[in-house]
Design a protein that fits this description.
Layout: E1 4-9, H1 16-25, E2 31-37, H2 48-58, E3 65-70, H3 74-80, E4 85-90, H4 93-109, E5 114-119, H5 129-137
Parallel strand pairs: 1-2, 1-4, 2-3, 4-5
This protein binds adenosine-5'-diphosphate (ADP).
Adenosine-5'-diphosphate is lined by residues 9-11, 15, 17-18, 21, 88-89, 91, 95, 120, 124, 127-129.
Length: 152
Amino acid sequence: MKKIAVFPGSFDPITLGHVAVMNRAVPLFDQLIIAIGDNADKKHMFPLEQRKKWILDIFKDQPKITVAIYNGLTVDFCKKTNAQFILRGLRTSADFEFERSIAQVNRRLAPEVDTLFILTEAKYTPVSSSIVRDIIRNGGDISEFVPEEVRF
Ligand code: ADP
């Protein structure tokens, strides 16, 4: 059976922290679906299609990675795509507490889907999409936090 993982997130925008987790996950799975959540309740800076295009550009030479936009429950998206795993990145203990409850609830909803975590590289611990958005809003330089494909 093909090992398929879904990496759900907002990726608004994708950062070098996300990319590092994705690159480390590639050897573990046959297919890695980067799934951008279409969450109407969440305020975003960049349109979904723009976020998707950046990720496609970054991984154009990585056939194991595909990119999708989804709405609804992540576990339902996993069932639809036959993914057995949800992948998430962990930076801090605050991330852990947040991720723990989501993963435990997801397991109740869909016991056949397991959540796996990759601990971020130390240098990317302080990097988040929300900090990148703050820097953009205030006219700062984001080049050391995002891949070069992220241009606007
Ligand atoms: P969400 O809105 O679901 O939190 P994000 O795009 O902010 O979406 O994050 C998606 C996933 O990437 C989460 O598991 C998050 O913890 C992880 N992540 C975010 N930034 C980093 C980073 N710098 N290093 C490792 N993982 C990260």
